[in-house]
Specification:
Blueprint: H1 3-7, E1 25-29, E2 46-47, E3 56-62, H2 68-83, E4 88-95, H3 99-106, H4 112-119, H5 135-150, E5 155-161, H6 176-189, E6 195-201, H7 219-222, E7 228-241, E8 247-250, H8 258-263, E9 272-279, H9 285-296
Parallel strand pairs: 3-6, 3-7, 4-5, 4-6, 7-9
Antiparallel strand pairs: 1-2, 1-9, 7-8
Helix pairs in contact: 2-5, 3-4, 5-9
C-alpha cells in the first residue's frame, strides 16, 4: 500500500479529525473575516462533496514536497468524479513536454515497466529537486490512472507548465505565471461543461501579488474567468522543497483554530484555507524508486 492509499481519510483536520465520508473539506472562508482576522460569522464555511458537482474552476495552492497536499487534492478529484457524471479536468504544475509521457502512463495498467517508463522522463531527474517531482506527485499520477480506469473517459489530466507547441512565446519571455494562466484558461474552456481542478504552488494560486511585489503577478491573478482559490496550509511537520536549500525543511506551525487560519496569509485573497495539520516530507520520486529497488533486491 502506498502513502497515498494509507493516508487518505486522515488528513482533513480542523479541531480534530473529520471523516472524509462525512465532509470533504473543512475550510475557513477568508472573506468571512474582518481585517483583524476575527470571524464575522460563527461557523466556518464547509465544502461538502456536492460543492464540486457543478461546472466551475478551482485553483488549489500547495507547499511542494509533502505527501498530504497531493493526497488532499486527489481526494477532491475523486469526489468531483463520484458526485457527478460530468467530465473532470485536472491541471498540474508539470512541464507540458511531459504530456505524452503522462498520457501513456495513464492508459497503462500501472505495471512496473510502465512506472519505470514514466520515471525515465527528465523531469524526475532535475538537479534542483524542489518538491514538484516528489514521490507524492508520482503517487498522485498513479491515483489518477486508477480513477481514469474507474471513470472511463471522464478524467483528463493536463500539464500546464510551459509553452505548448501550438502557442507563441509570451512577449515577456520569462513570465511563467502568464503561461500557467493561459494554459489553465485554455484547458478549462475546453471543459466548460465540467469541473476543472488545478494544483499549483501556493504563490501561483494567489488572487493578488505579494505586498511590495506588484510587478510579479501570480497565475490566479491573471485568470480572466471566474474561479475559486483554495490555499492548502500545512501546520507543522516537514516538506521537501528549496525554501531553505533544497531538501527536508521544517514547516511553520501555528496554533490550531479559526482565528489562526483566518489570519493565515490573509493578504493573498485566497477564497478558502484548509488546515492539513502536520505534513510529512515526500522525497524525490527517483530516490524513492531506488530505495524500493534496493529492498526488492
Amino acid at each position: 500500500m502506498n502513502h497515498f492509499q494509507s493516508s487518505i481519510g486522515t488528513i482533513y483536520r480542523h479541531r480534530g479529525t473529520i471523516s472524509v465520508t462525512a465532509v470533504l473539506f473543512a475550510v475557513i472562508c477568508i472573506t468571512s473575516c474582518d481585517p483583524q482576522g476575527n470571524l464575522t460569522r460563527p461557523e466556518p464555511n464547509i465544502f461538502r462533496p456536492e460543492t464540486l458537482s457543478a461546472p466551475g474552476i478551482w485553483v488549489f495552492g500547495e507547499l511542494h514536497g509533502n505527501y498530504e497536499s497531493p493526497t488532499f487534492f486527489g481526494a477532491a478529484v475523486s469526489s468531483a468524479l463520484s458526485a457527478t457524471n460530468m467530465n473532470v479536468l485536472v491541471g498540474l504544475e508539470l512541464p507540458v513536454a511531459m504530456q505524452a509521457t503522462i498520457d501513456t502512463y495513464l492508459r497503462s495498467s500501472g505495471d512496473p515497466e510502465s512506472r519505470e517508463a514514466l520515471l525515465q522522463h527528465s523531469f524526475w531527474h532535475r538537479q534542483m529537486q524542489d518538491g514538484k517531482s516528489s514521490a507524492a506527485m508520482f503517487d498522485l499520477l498513479e491515483h489518477f490512472r486508477q480513477l481514469g480506469a474507474r471513470y472511463s473517459g471522464r478524467l483528463l489530466v493536463r500539464a500546464i507548465d510551459g509553452v505548448r507547441a501550438d502557442q507563441q512565446q509570451p512577449s515577456t519571455g520569462s513570465d511563467r505565471d502568464a503561461i500557467l494562466a493561459r494554459n489553465a484558461t485554455d484547458d478549462a474552456a475546453n471543459n466548460s461543461d465540467g469541473v476543472s481542478l488545478f494544483l499549483v504552488g501556493n504563490f501561483h494560486s494567489r488572487r493578488q501579488p505579494l505586498n511590495g511585489l506588484d510587478y510579479i503577478r501570480p497565475m490566479a491573478s491573471l485568470l480572466q474567468v471566474p474561479f475559486i482559490s483554495v490555499q492548502i496550509v500545512p501546520n507543522g511537520g516537514t516538506s521537501w522543497n528549496c525554501q531553505a536549500g533544497c531538501g527536508d525543511n521544517s514547516v511553520m506551525q501555528f496554533v490550531p483554530g479559526l482565528e489562526a487560519l483566518a489570519n493565515y496569509q490573509n493578504d493573498g485573497e485566497y477564497d478558502y484555507v484548509v488546515d492539513l495539520g502536520p505534513v510529512t516530507s515526500a522525497e524525490p520520486a527517483i530516490w524513492a524508486s531506488v530505495a524500493l529497488e534496493t529492498v526488492s533486491d
